[in-house]
Amino acid sequence: MSTTFAVIITNYNYKAFVAEAIESALGQTRPPAQIIVVDDGSKDGSQDFLRERYGDNPRVTLLMCENGGQLVAFQRGLAAADADVVCFLDADDRWQADYLQKVGKIFDARPDVDFVFSDIVRFGGEDKRIGDASHEIDYGYTAIATYALAHWYGGPTSALSVRTTMAKECVDLPPALAKRWRLCADAALVYGASILGGRKIFLPTNAVMYRVHGNNGWWSNRGQVASYKNRIRTRELINHFGQIAGVCMASTESVKFEFRTKPNPTRQERRRYASIAMMSPGSLWKRIERAAGIKFKKINTKKAPD
C-alpha cells in the first residue's frame, strides 16, 4: 500500500525564503497529499504574500495564526493533517525534488518504521553535508538509550518524517512544559518518538537543503550558561515522555534487549549501549556481563524483518 504524506511548513518572518520551501514541496516527484503552511503571526508581510501567491492553489492549505511559537505551529499543522506520515519543513529550507520519493520507499516497505530522519546539506555561505553515515542505518528502538543518555536520534526539523499519530502524541505537551519548548520544538518530535516506542531509521538522501543565515545554525556555540539550561530542560522533556511510556533508569536492566532490535549496529552504537549497561542495576559483575554481551554481540547482516 502506498503511504500518503502531508508536508507541514512553519513560517515566521521568512517572507524572503518561504516560497522556495513551498515550491520545493510542490515540485516533489512523489507528490504529497497535503501541503500545509502555518504562518505563526509573521510581521514581515508574509501573510499577505502567501495569500496572494498560494491562496488559490488547491494543493496548498494556508493557516494564518497568531504568534504561538514553533510547537504551537506544529500542533496547528498536525490538527489539519490527514495523511499517514507527516514531513516537516522549515520555511527557510528546501528539499530536492526526490526527497519524498526516497523517504516514501522506506515507509511503503516498512510498516514497522515510525520515524525516518535524513542527512542535511548546508548552503548559503557554506556547503557541507551532515549525517550519521553514508549508508542507511536501522536504529531499531531507542527508548532506553534516549532516556539514559539523552542521545539525539534525529536531525533538524526539515529532515524529519514521522507517522502522523505518533507526531501528534509527541507534541501534546502539558501547558507548563509546552511554554518552555515554544521554540526548538523538533526536540519534542525526536525525543518523544524515541521514548514513546518509535522505530527509527536514518536515511541519507542528500536532498534536505539547510539554509545557513544569521544565527540559525544549531551547531553554533550558544555559551556555557545556555548549554546548561538547555540540558536541564531537555531532561525535563525526556522525563515527561518517560513517565508516559514507563521508561526510567531502572529500564536500563533491559538494555541488551533494546540493543538486539538493531540489525547492524554501528561501533558507536555498541559503545553507547555498553556504557548504558554499566549504568544498569545489579552487581558490578552483572553490569560487566551485560556490557560485554553488547560489545561483542555478533553482527546480524540479514535485513530486518518487515
Short description:
This protein is of the alpha/beta class. The chain has 12 helices and 12 strands. It has 2 domains: 5-243, Spore Coat Polysaccharide Biosynthesis Protein SpsA, Chain A (Alpha-Beta Complex), CATH 3.90.550.10; 249-295, no CATH class.
Any overview of this molecule?
This protein has 306 residues and is of the alpha/beta class. It has 2 domains: 5-243, Spore Coat Polysaccharide Biosynthesis Protein SpsA, Chain A (Alpha-Beta Complex); 249-295, no CATH class. Helix content is 40%, strand content 19%. The strands form 2 sheets. It has an 8-stranded mixed beta sheet, with helices on both faces. The protein has a 4-stranded mixed beta sheet with strand order 5-12-7-8. The longest helix is centred in the C-terminal third of the chain and has 22 residues, at 224-245. It is globular. The chain starts with a strand and ends in an 11-residue tail after the last helix.
